[in-house]
Amino acid sequence: DFSFGDIDSQLEILLVVADQMGCADTIQKLINIGDAFAYWIPNAFTPNEDGLNETFKPIFSRNNVPESYHLQIYNRWGDLVFETLDHDEGWTGHVGAKEDAQGVYIYNLLFNDNTGKQYKKKGHLTLIR
To answer: Whole-prediction pTM value?
Structure first.
């Protein structure tokens, strides 16, 4: 369970391993991440008005907002269905006038961190109703 709202300067990591014979071991460490630029891109969302996962948008660590940002979402035929330059704006799952869209979509994300480093991310996301 990882919450970006809790990122300050340390992150607790838990590793559990087991071999083929069933022998297991666990190690837990605090890792100093300082001002690391952290982000997470979900692979699914459920805009069903329950207050959870209502929009698709990448999540950035509390103290690290991207300097520039461009998100595009395409359907499986390559049609652009959503685009934004605002990292706070998420896709609600609407495709034109169609409010019951669902299925797999492709995203292209281009952003710069606060040091100017550029990130290009591509992937898929599932819209579940």
So the answer is: 0.71
Beta bridge partners of 72: 83, 108
What DSSP assignment string belongs to 24-83?
A: EEEEEEEEE-TT---EE--SEE--SSSSSS-SB--EE-TT---SEEEEEEE-TTS-EEEE
Q: Are strands 10-18 and 24-32 parallel, antiparallel or unpaired?
A: antiparallel
Query: CB atoms < 10 A from the CB of 64, how many?
Result: 17
Residues 92-103, mean pLDDT to the nearest whole number:
84
Phi-psi region of 85 (alpha: psi -120 to 50; beta: other; left: phi over 0): alpha
- Average model confidence (pLDDT) for the chain? 85
Query: Nearest CA to 74 among 20, 36, 127?
Result: 127
Taking residues 13-22, report their average pLDDT. 89
* Per-residue pLDDT at 14: 87
Number of Cβ within 10 Å of residue 18's Cβ equals 10
User: Measuring CA to CA, which residue among 54, 58, 34, 36 is closest to residue 45?
Assistant: 54
